[in-house]
């Protein structure tokens, strides 16, 4: 498509698309298309003008003197087509939402200006009286419910102003209240919308059952009526009905149930829920995207009930202060018989600013966290992160990279490497986690394909996998599982080779018919930033860092020394991690748990704040209170910074609102400020503190 370069500087291009009119949807298509291009770091598309501002990482200069990144972007623009790139745009982008509230805000200001400066006084008075009906009704309804809330205060202030003939003050109060409502609603809906879009399922492939075989297929190829297989620890990606199998499904995010629901043949399951135990075959009746966004929005709105103690205290204080404001107004009038001084108190209340700014601060913090790939389910957990003094880490996929590799395969009982690797990959691909992915990827790298020859696969949490292949029992997992639980043994003559296994790797043991056939040595590379991230967390007030892993003592000791944790525990079971956290609670500590696997779920649930790694098991993300990016552990540092900054902002807002409004009341009673000025300063300060609460906490 043709476009014109309007301006450019290092790493930045502003272009105008040669199109007479650009719709919101077309602007989204262009934005997501450009974001998908190599070297592009950020994009802003302005639909009204047809402009696109493109930020990119400058790189090597070509022979013509121009950067290759710039040349690539211009080539992408030349080949751009709206029709061919619609699939890049998600169902909800937020552009239409922002435009709707921008227009609403502008029209509110324009209507106020027209009313104030161009209409005659009788018409202005009539409009004020009509608009006051809503506020008066809300105040009366609050009284009828036996509650004296901020609605009563607003209604009283507006009514008293009109009874005194001060219709301009009444109109100004209602205008400022309207602006506050729009800003609050806009921020709330935008925060919810941003979170909902980032909490999409991100499921790319599913196991489809066809002709009694399971085939791994892209999720977008699934149609209504297709059958998919869901196993323990996996997220259910599509709505449907169970046609076989039995499973316990955690569906708290959809239905609010605290306990897993038993699903049998004929039961209905929902996209976004997680299989905690068992497995089932689901007949799909809603394809990808159907109703999912709305369900996530409901979940986020429910999570807003999880207020922090500080936020909840401010909210309750706001309601408790209303009767005092009304009482102070009445007392001032009785003592002075001066309606102007009494009205000055009525025009100022603490409730509006407290109730408006605190939730906005929390929602804005959640939105800002999203920019750092941090998803938080409620303000309560941000406060808990700020107050925590102990942090517990799982090892694999948390302190180490979530993409371990197979470093070596040691075969036993005369087996060949390719045969044992093919068998291990055949089993592991049904339960994807970091170690399983390493095995499957190694098989792919070697070009080893396999047919499904095994019967039902059974996964034993924190231990391993068991199945039947060609009539023989095959087990794959930890030393404890293979040798102690399953009583497998070495073939004659293999002891020396077994004793010579390298110490530096984690081991995955494969046995057939009770005889060890292979040991897959897994290289679990340490996250480069792990030690520095833990050091920074300690500087920020974390006094105790702990690593707990199911891995062997030797490997655990090496990792613990490298990252610098205060203590470590090796060869632990899931219940051991949860038990350790309970012990820390009894000792008076507030605990954060960070994990990524099915076996971390009990500990994530037990902790004050459970933090899951984004690339981890679905059930871990489901149970966790916070999800962070899998890219690096500095997200934990950002989370702590964000939580501390939020608590500082809430306390700062609290002090400012009480102090400023108290000053207005004193000046009003003293006769220094007239009611109209008090109302203006009060409402202006409320909007100002709310707008400040919407700004980013971190620079």
List keywords for this structure.
single chain; 699 residues; alpha+beta; seven-stranded antiparallel beta sheet; 24 strands
Task: Determine the number of helices (DSSP H or I, runs of at least 4 residues).
Answer: 24
Low-confidence stretches: 61-65
Summarize the biggest pleated sheet.
Answer: 7 strands, antiparallel
User: How many runs of DSSP E, i.e. beta strands?
Assistant: 24
Assign the structural class, choosing from mainly alpha, mainly beta, alpha/beta, alpha+beta, or little secondary structure. Answer: alpha+beta
Rounded to an integer in angstroms, the radius of gyration calculated over CA atoms is 31 Å
Mean pLDDT: 82
Distance between the termini: 38 Å
> What level of helicity do the residues show?
40-55%
> How would you describe the shape?
elongated
- Content of β-strand: 15-25%
Quaternary organisation of the protein chains? single chain
Structure report:
The protein is of the alpha+beta class. The chain is 49% helix and 20% strand. It is built from 24 helices and 24 strands. The strands form 4 sheets. Strands 5, 6, 7, 8, 9, 10 and 11 form a 7-stranded antiparallel β-sheet that branches. The protein has a 7-stranded mixed β-sheet with strand order 12-24-23-22-13-20-21, with helices on both faces. Strand 20, helix 19 and strand 21 form a beta-alpha-beta unit. It is elongated, with a radius of gyration of 31 Å.
Short description, anyone?
The protein has 699 residues and is α+β, with helices and mostly antiparallel strands. It contains 24 helices and 24 strands.
């Amino acid at each position: 498509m043709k476009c014109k370069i309007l301006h450019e500087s290092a790493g930045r291009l502003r272009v105008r698309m040669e199109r007479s009119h650009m719709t919101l949807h077309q602007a989204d298509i262009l934005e997501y298309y450009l974001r998908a291009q190599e070297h592009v770091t950020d994009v802003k598309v302005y639909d009204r003008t047809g402009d696109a501002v493109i930020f990119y990482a400058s790189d090597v200069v070509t022979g013509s003197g121009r950067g290759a990144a710039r040349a690539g972007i211009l080539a992408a623009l030349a080949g751009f087509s709206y029709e061919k790139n619609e699939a890049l745009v998600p169902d909800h982008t937020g552009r239409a939402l922002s435009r709707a509230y921008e227009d609403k805000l502008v029209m509110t200001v324009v209507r106020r200006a027209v009313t104030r400066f161009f209409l005659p006084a009788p018409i202005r008075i009539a409009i004020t009286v009509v608009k006051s009906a809503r506020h008066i009704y809300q105040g009366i309804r609050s009284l009828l419910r036996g509650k004296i809330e901020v609605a009563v205060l607003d209604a009283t202030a507006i009514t008293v102003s009109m009874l005194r003939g001060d219709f301009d003050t009444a109109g100004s109060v209602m205008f400022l209240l309207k602006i506050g409502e729009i800003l609050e609603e806009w921020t709330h809906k935008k925060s919810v919308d941003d979170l909902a879009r980032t909490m999409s399922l991100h499921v790319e492939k599913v196991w489809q059952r066809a002709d009694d075989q399971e085939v791994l297929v892209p999720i977008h190829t699934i149609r209504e009526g297709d059958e998919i297989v869901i196993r323990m620890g996996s997220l259910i990606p599509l709505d449907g009905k169970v046609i076989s199998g039995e499973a316990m499904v955690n569906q708290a995010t959809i239905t609010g149930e605290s306990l897993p629901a038993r699903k049998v043949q004929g039961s209905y399951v929902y996209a976004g829920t997680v299989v905690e135990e068992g497995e089932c075959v689901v007949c799909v009746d809603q394809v990808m995207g159907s109703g999912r966004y709305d369900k996530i929005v409901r979940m986020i709105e429910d999570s807003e009930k999880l207020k922090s103690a500080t936020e909840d205290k401010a909210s309750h204080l706001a309601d408790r202060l209303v009767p005092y404001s009304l009482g102070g107004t009445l007392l001032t009038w009785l003592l002075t018989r001066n309606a102007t001084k009494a009205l000055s108190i009525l025009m100022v209340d603490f409730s509006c600013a407290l109730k408006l700014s605190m939730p906005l601060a929390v929602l804005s913090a959640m939105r800002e966290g999203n920019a750092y790939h941090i998803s938080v389910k409620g303000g309560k957990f941000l406060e808990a992160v700020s107050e925590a003094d102990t942090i517990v880490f799982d090892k694999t996929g948390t302190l180490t990279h979530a993409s371990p590799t197979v470093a070596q395969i040691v075969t036993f009982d005369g087996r060949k490497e390719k045969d044992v690797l093919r068998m291990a990959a055949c089993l592991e691909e049904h339960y994807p986690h970091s170690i399983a992915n390493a095995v499957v990827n190694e098989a792919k790298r070697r070009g080893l394909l396999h047919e499904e020859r095994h019967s039902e696969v059974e996964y034993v949490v924190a231990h391993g996998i068991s199945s039947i292949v060609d009539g023989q029992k095959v087990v794959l997992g930890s030393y404890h599982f293979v040798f102690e639980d399953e009583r497998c043994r070495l073939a004659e003559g293999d002891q020396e080779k077994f004793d010579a296994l390298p110490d530096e790797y984690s081991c995955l043991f494969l046995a057939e018919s009770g005889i060890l056939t292979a040991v897959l040595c897994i290289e679990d590379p340490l996250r480069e930033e792990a030690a520095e991230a833990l050091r920074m967390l300690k500087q920020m007030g974390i006094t105790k860092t702990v690593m707990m892993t199911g891995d062997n003592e030797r490997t655990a000791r090496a990792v613990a020394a490298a990252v610098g944790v205060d203590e470590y525990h090796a060869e632990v079971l899931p219940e051991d991690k949860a038990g350790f956290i309970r012990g820390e609670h009894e000792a008076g500590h507030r605990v954060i748990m960070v994990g990524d696997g099915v076996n971390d779920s009990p500990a994530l649930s037990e902790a004050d704040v459970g933090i899951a790694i984004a690339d981890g098991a679905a059930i871990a993300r489901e149970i966790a209170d916070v999800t962070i990016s899998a890219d690096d552990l500095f997200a934990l540092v950002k989370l702590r910074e964000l939580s501390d900054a939020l608590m500082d902002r809430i306390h700062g807002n609290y002090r400012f609102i009480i102090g400023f409004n108290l000053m207005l009341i004193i000046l009003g009673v003293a006769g220094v400020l007239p009611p109209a000025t008090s109302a203006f300063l009060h409402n202006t300060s409320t909007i100002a503190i709310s707008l400040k609460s919407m700004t980013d906490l971190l620079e």
